[in-house]
Structure to design on (359 residues):
C-alpha cells in the first residue's frame, strides 16, 4: 500500500491491499473518528529514528496543501511565496530529524488563522481543541524545541532553519538561545546584530559582511551531478556578534554568533547569509549541517508525491493529525524497515567540503 500509485485515501488503500469492502470504512473511522492521541505516537516515532539512524540536526519545513473548498480545517487563502500566486490551502509546519542521508518527519502543526482562531462554530464543527490558537510559525518552532530537549539521543542536536521569511527571526534565535540550543540559521541580510564587546554597535549581517577587511575568505568545493567540481566562495566574519534581544540580562545574553555569507556566484541572485552559535567549529563542519534543511525539503516532496500528505479527505482537526501521523510513520518505515528503503527515498545532497582559501 505504501508503494501503490495514486491518492492514499481509505478507499484506494483498501482496494490496493485486496481487503474486504468493509476495510475502507474501518480505515476511514480509524483516521477521522477514532479518539487515539497522535502525540505519543509521534514521540515514539522520533525515538525510533533517533535510535536507528545517526541524527545530526533538527530541521523545520513548511507543507502547503491545496484545497478546492473552504470547509476543511485551517483552509485559507494566501500568497504562495514560491510562485507569487494566491492559493486556497492548508498550511502545515513539520518537524524533521535529520539522520544518515535523510530527514524524517516526526511532528506536525497546522497553522490556524483568521476565523479558525475565533469562529466558535467552525472550531466546533472541525473539533479544534480549545488550547489550539493562532500562533506565528516562529512560536511553533520554539514549541518543537521545548519538546525536543527531552528526547534521548537527539536533545542537544543543532537546529538548522531558514528564517529568511520568518516575521520574528530574532525572537526564534533568542528563544533557542534560552534553551541553550545551537543553531545554523539562514537569515535575511537585514538581521540585526550587535558588534563589539564593551561598547557594542548595532549593525546588520548584510552591512557587516560588506566590510571587506572584516571577513575571512573560504571556498566551498562540491561535486555537481555530472561529476564536475564546483568552487563557490564563502565569507566568514572575522569576529563574533550578539543578538540585541539577549543583551538585557537574559539566560542567553553571553551567547555569541558567527556570520557566514555565500556571495551569488553569477552576481544576479542575492547573497545568502547564515548566523550560527557554533563559533568554535570549522566552517566546513558548520555548513555541512545545512544539508539537514535540504533533506527536510526533499522529505516534504516525498511525503506529497508518494505518502499521501496531500490526500486527506476529511475536514476535522484530529482527522488531519491522524492522517499526517500515519503518512509520517509510513515514510519512516520505508527507510528503517522497508525492503526498498533508501533506494526509493530522495537522498539529501552529498555533504560539501570546505577548504580555507589563501588570503
Amino acid at each position: 500500500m505504501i508503494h501503490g500509485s495514486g491518492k492514499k485515501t481509505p478507499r484506494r488503500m483498501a482496494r490496493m491491499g485486496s481487503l474486504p469492502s468493509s476495510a475502507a470504512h474501518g480505515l476511514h473511522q480509524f483516521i477521522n473518528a477514532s479518539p487515539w492521541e497522535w502525540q505519543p505516537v509521534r514521540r515514539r516515532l522520533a525515538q525510533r529514528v533517533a535510535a536507528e539512524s545517526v541524527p545530526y540536526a533538527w530541521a523545520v519545513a513548511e507543507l502547503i496543501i491545496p484545497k478546492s473548498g473552504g470547509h476543511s480545517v485551517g483552509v485559507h487563502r494566501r500568497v504562495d511565496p514560491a510562485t507569487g500566486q494566491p492559493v486556497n490551502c492548508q498550511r502545515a509546519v513539520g518537524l524533521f530529524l535529520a539522520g544518515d542521508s535523510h530527514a524524517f518527519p516526526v511532528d506536525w502543526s497546522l497553522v490556524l488563522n483568521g476565523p479558525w482562531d475565533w469562529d466558535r462554530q467552525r472550531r466546533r464543527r472541525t473539533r479544534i481543541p480549545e488550547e489550539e490558537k493562532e500562533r506565528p510559525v516562529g512560536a511553533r518552532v520554539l514549541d518543537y524545541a521545548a519538546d525536543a530537549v527531552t528526547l534521548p539521543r537527539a536533545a542537544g542536536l543543532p537546529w538548522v532553519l531558514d528564517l529568511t521569511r520568518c516575521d520574528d527571526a530574532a525572537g526564534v534565535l533568542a528563544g533557542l538561545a534560552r534553551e541553550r540550543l545551537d543553531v545554523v540559521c539562514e537569515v535575511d541580510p537585514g538581521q540585526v546584530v550587535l558588534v563589539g564587546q564593551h561598547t557594542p554597535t548595532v549593525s546588520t549581517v548584510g552591512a557587516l559582511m560588506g566590510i571587506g577587511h572584516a571577513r575571512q575568505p573560504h571556498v566551498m568545493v562540491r561535486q555537481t551531478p555530472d561529476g564536475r567540481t564546483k568552487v563557490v566562495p564563502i565569507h566568514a566574519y572575522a569576529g563574533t556578534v550578539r543578538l540585541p534581544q539577549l543583551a538585557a540580562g537574559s539566560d542567553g545574553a553571553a551567547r555569541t554568533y558567527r556570520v557566514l555569507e555565500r556571495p551569488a556566484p553569477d552576481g544576479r541572485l542575492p547573497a545568502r547569509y547564515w548566523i550560527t552559535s557554533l563559533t568554535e567549529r570549522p566552517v566546513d563542519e558548520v555548513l555541512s549541517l545545512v544539508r539537514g534543511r535540504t533533506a527536510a525539503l526533499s522529505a516534504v516532496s516525498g511525503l506529497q508525491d508518494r505518502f499521501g500528505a496531500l490526500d486527506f479527505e476529511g475536514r476535522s482537526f484530529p482527522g488531519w493529525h491522524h492522517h499526517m501521523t500515519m503518512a509520517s510513520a509510513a515514510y519512516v518505515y520505508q527507510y528503517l524497515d522497508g525492503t526498498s528503503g533508501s533506494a526509493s527515498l530522495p537522498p539529501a545532497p552529498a555533504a560539501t567540503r570546505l577548504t580555507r582559501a589563501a588570503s
